[in-house]
């Protein structure tokens, strides 16, 4: 035994049964080679327990290792040694459960500087059976940190505590160099975890490395520096429209793999200090002296001095889990051209300035986002495509989201597009912050799909959504703003928006604008299905609006209020082919003079079981203009003047199996639209006569 073991043994009431001491190595413990297989189990479990909090004081270490190590050692002779700063801990057993006698032990601490010794006896077992039972119970509690991520989980490999590299953690001393040294050492050691124990760590830009996890423990806060000079301009290799924004970040990574940001700690960008920070022309030129590309956009003054909190570019195998993110000067998280990204169980609160998005997934493949809370001033769950690469193969589920602008959004940048995206089981609620800087307190759109810079949106499903207090629940827009993602790239043509399914949505307390699905002449939105939707609008419009009065505005920035007052209080649809509206229930809080549904230049329309309020004096519950190939069935309008009004070139309208008993006039025709445009069968009419 070593001198420490001998000293402890001499002061104990028992004796050591082991034949050699453990040897301490970085990141864990190593046993002498003659140990048995059972001690390997002890090694794995004891290492996992110690990794939970490597900087605990002696008393906490005793609490953590006392029960588990003694219970396991009671069956196998083991000596255990752990050194922390100037204190050395030694554990030994005095008798084995394999023998019929009792087993007991002690836990000792030696201060290697003063030589003082402190002994902590541990209880004895009466027999081996009771020991084994308690061991099994203890293992059931102790194993989970090893088996799956949790507060105490750290990835395998060397373990680097930022304090050991000089981080003060007092919230005032700039710890950038110490944190970066820990990251670099971790990467050079072939990967592992950079650990932030409880404390407040002030930092500028941290450059993440491959195979490195940043682990923030409970009580750990990573604070973004409030000095702009601590965030250097970093020009990424990949050109994108976001070059116009900011090329600074608190956590930056490019062309990395196997990286993670985890734990129960907090990252706070302190973004309020950067609000309104815009350089003058000469200042911008000095800032961008290192900007060496003439074929890509330069950052704009309104963005360049506001760093992101997290920006990862062309990275693979990314995990962001458990952390809290607050107060970014810009977007909170930007993942550009990344693959295999998992974001799980994070909390975001971002209300300190402009462009305070929750998360931006940009040209990424194979993404899973789940179990997150987000409350942001700008867009919340945001998908972009600022290069010619699509965002595709994305799953989002089980999130609670709030925004003063758009809560679930694709676009506006859509250069590559979006494909194979499934969003489900989310709650959209009003923001807890009632002082909107962008948008408005109620939020703009709950669901916004916006294709205006070319690209293809194809294969998007959104289901099981509840929302409260949004201005517009559903907004789909195909426009033609036509911005190129980099200099020298030709203007993109109008894109495509097709194959969208929105199901099982309940929206209450929303505004009076109404939902809209709009394309452009010659560029229709294609194959959209909206089913099992219940929306309670504010209502209150006293005048009807003609469809011809709605401007096209092909190149306008898309937002859900861009057309002003819509002709329908429920759904306004224009330039669409292949629309299915099934099991739609529409109501309003205040009487509204507009129809529930207005379609203009729509082909292949199905309206199945529409149940919508309508005022008796309204033109019609459903108004179809230039609509060809429609099926209306299973509708039951309330007492009103007209069920269906046709205008323009509408034709081939099949009306089957509707209850029109409360309607004064089932159909009316405007202009030159012939009555033959409607083929009515098996409807219940006011006279109770069947057709």
Number of strands: 43
Mean pLDDT over all positions: 83
Portion of residues in beta strands equals 35-45%
Indicate the structural class: mainly beta
Total number of helical segments? 8
Fraction of residues in H or I helices: 10-25%
**Rg calc:** 32 Å
Give the biggest beta sheet: 37 strands, parallel
Shape: elongated
Give the CA-CA distance, first to last residue. Answer: 101 Å
Poorly predicted runs are: 1-126, 140-156
Could you characterize the architecture of this molecule?
With 691 residues, this protein is mostly beta strands. The protein has 8 helices and 43 strands. The strands form 3 sheets. The chain has a 37-stranded parallel beta sheet that branches. A 4-stranded antiparallel beta sheet has the order 3-4-5-6, sandwiched between helices. Strand 3 (79-84) and strand 4 (87-93) form a beta hairpin. The protein is elongated. Mean pLDDT is 83; it is low at 1-126 and 140-156.
Features of this protein?
single chain, mainly beta, 37-stranded parallel beta sheet, 4-stranded antiparallel beta sheet, 43 strands, 42% strand, elongated
At a glance:
By secondary structure, this protein is mostly beta strands. Helices cover 12% and strands 42% of the residues.
């Amino acid at each position: 035994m070593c001198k420490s073991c001998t000293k402890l043994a001499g002061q104990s009431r028992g004796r050591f049964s082991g034949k050699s001491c453990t040897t301490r190595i970085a990141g864990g413990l190593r046993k002498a080679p003659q140990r048995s297989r059972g001690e390997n189990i002890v090694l794995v479990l004891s290492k996992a327990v110690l990794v939970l909090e490597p900087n605990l004081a002696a008393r906490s270490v005793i609490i953590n290792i006392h029960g588990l190590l003694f219970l396991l050692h009671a069956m196998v002779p083991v000596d255990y040694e752990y050194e922390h700063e100037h204190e050395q801990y030694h554990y030994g057993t005095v008798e084995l459960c394999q023998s019929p006698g009792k087993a007991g032990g002690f836990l000792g601490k030696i201060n290697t500087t003063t030589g003082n010794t402190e002994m902590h006896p541990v209880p004895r077992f009466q027999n081996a059976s009771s020991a084994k039972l308690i061991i099994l119970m203890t293992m059931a509690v102790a194993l989970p940190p090893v088996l799956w991520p949790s507060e105490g989980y750290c990835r395998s490999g060397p373990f680097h505590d930022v304090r050991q590299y000089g981080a003060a953690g007092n919230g005032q001393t700039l710890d950038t160099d110490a944190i970066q040294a820990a990251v670099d050492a971790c990467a050079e050691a072939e990967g592992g975890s950079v650990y932030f124990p409880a404390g407040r760590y002030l930092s500028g830009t941290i450059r993440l490395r491959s195979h490195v996890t940043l682990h923030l423990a409970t009580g750990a806060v990573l604070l973004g520096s409030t000095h702009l000079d601590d965030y250097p301009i970093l020009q990424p290799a990949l050109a994108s429209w976001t070059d116009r924004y900011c090329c600074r970040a608190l956590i930056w990574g490019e062309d990395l793999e196997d990286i993670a940001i985890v734990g129960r700690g907090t990252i706070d960008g302190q973004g309020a200090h950067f609000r309104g920070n815009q350089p003058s022309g000469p200042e911008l030129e000095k800032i961008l002296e290192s900007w060496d590309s003439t074929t890509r956009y330069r950052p704009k003054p309104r963005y360049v001095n506001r760093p992101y909190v997290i920006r990862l570019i062309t990275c693979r195998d990314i995990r962001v889990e458990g952390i809290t993110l607050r107060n970014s000067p810009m977007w909170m998280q930007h993942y550009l051209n990344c693959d295999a990204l998992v974001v799980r169980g994070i909390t975001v609160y971002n209300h300190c300035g402009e462009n305070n998005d929750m998360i931006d997934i940009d040209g990424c493949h194979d993404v899973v986002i789940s179990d997150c809370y987000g409350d942001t001033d700008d867009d919340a769950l945001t998908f972009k495509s600022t290069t010619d690469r699509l965002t595709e193969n994305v799953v989002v589920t089980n999130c609670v989201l709030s925004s003063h602008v758009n809560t679930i959004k694709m676009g506006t940048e859509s250069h590559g597009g979006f494909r194979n995206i499934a969003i489900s089981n989310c709650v959209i609620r009003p923001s807890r912050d009632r002082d909107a800087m962008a948008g408005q307190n109620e939020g703009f759109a709950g669901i916004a799909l916006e294709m205006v810079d070319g690209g293809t949106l194809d294969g998007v499903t959104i289901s099981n959504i509840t929302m409260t207090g949004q201005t517009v629940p559903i907004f789909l827009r195909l426009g033609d703003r036509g911005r190129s993602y980099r200099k020298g790239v030709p203007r993109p043509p109008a894109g495509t928006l097709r194959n969208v399914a929105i199901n099982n949505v309940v929206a209450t307390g929303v505004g009076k604008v109404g939902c809209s699905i709009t394309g452009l002449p010659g560029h229709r939105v294609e194959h959209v299905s909206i089913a099992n939707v219940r929306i309670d609008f504010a209502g209150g419009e006293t005048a009807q609006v003609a469809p011809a009065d709605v401007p096209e505005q092909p190149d306008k920035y898309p937002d859900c209020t861009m057309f002003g007052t819509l002709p329908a209080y429920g759904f306004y649809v224009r330039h669409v082919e292949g629309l299915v509206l099934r099991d739609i229930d529409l109501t309003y809080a205040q009487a509204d003079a507009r129809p529930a549904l207005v379609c203009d230049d729509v082909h292949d329309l199905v309206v199945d079981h529409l149940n919508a309020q309508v005022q008796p004096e309204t033109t019609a519950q459903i108004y179809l203009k230039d609509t060809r190939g429609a099926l209306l069935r299973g509708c039951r309008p309330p007492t009103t003047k007209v069920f269906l009004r046709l205008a323009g070139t509408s034709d081939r309208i099949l009306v089957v199996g509707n209850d029109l008993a409360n309607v004064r006039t089932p159909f009316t025709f405007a202009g030159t639209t012939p009555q033959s445009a409607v083929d009515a069968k098996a409807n219940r009419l006011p006279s109770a006569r069947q057709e």
